Amino acid sequence: MSYEIYIVNKDTFERIEKIQHIENINWTDDIDNVFISFTFSCTKAYLVGNWIELYEKDDKKTIFYGIITRQPRNRAEIYTYSGFDKGFYLEKNKITIQYRNSNISNAIKEACKEINVECGTIPKIDYTVKKIYKNNTVTDVLKDLLKIAKEKGLKGNLYFDCKNGKLNLYEYALNDSLKGYVANIYRLNTFDTVNSFDITYSIENMKNKIKVISSVTKNKQTTINERYTTPENENTKKYGILQEIIELDADEKQSSETIAKKTLSELNIVEQEISLDVIGDYNVRKGTITPIKKERLNIDDYFLIKSSNHNIVGTKETVSINVIKANL
Q: In terms of pTM, does the model score above 0.85?
């Protein structure tokens, strides 16, 4: 793959200048973050606050737009820049906002509007939210809104992404043909190039008991009503109780039992996380579901890429990824 970086207009992303003599491009994403972070080095000074475009010229593909937030310089007159995509503003801004039975899709857009971040692809989410957020980062508000939607029965797996200069809410996407280049000529299956690996098993995120509640306030007195609690299961016996509380509006019509059992099925698992170093390209990124079959790792299944760290030197792109078993 052959990459170029341009200085672009911060509003229109129109190209202003191609950056020359680029070294060591690195970018990272994570399913738990709303942003991409990046670094690159070159021999020319650019101001902090400039916007850049990372572009792959063989496929004519913009990988992301981002803002330079830091600029160290060493004695060899090499400037190493770092920054983030538009998600930087979601992380750094706090808001206070009240929702009164707002449609969650609209609630997401309202939160972004508070800080002038444009929304791109936001699917229609008909579930509503009634909540006040005080002095929360926009990121925390967005994550909580998505969590509420899932608790109320939202189907599909969604994640936030800002690579195109807007906030998007995408579904996980299947890609069964991830490739990497050797010497920019030979194209290989990414998972035939595994250099090193690490496999971890964990119960740190397990929730094996789900309690659904609602609250009613009358005459300044609040009453908590327990609507449904999942029964004891093998994992509560084996690992002890690891409980999650889901609070619903008092007038919520969704079945509390259905919500609890759905949440339990997603969270009552021993996570298997696999770290791999491979040769890849920009398609090896968060939110991608891909088949991995490696006899020496004793795995043959579909996995979700949770995070990726891309290191680009010349035409060689190595990627460190963390994957977990996909919930298809």
A: yes
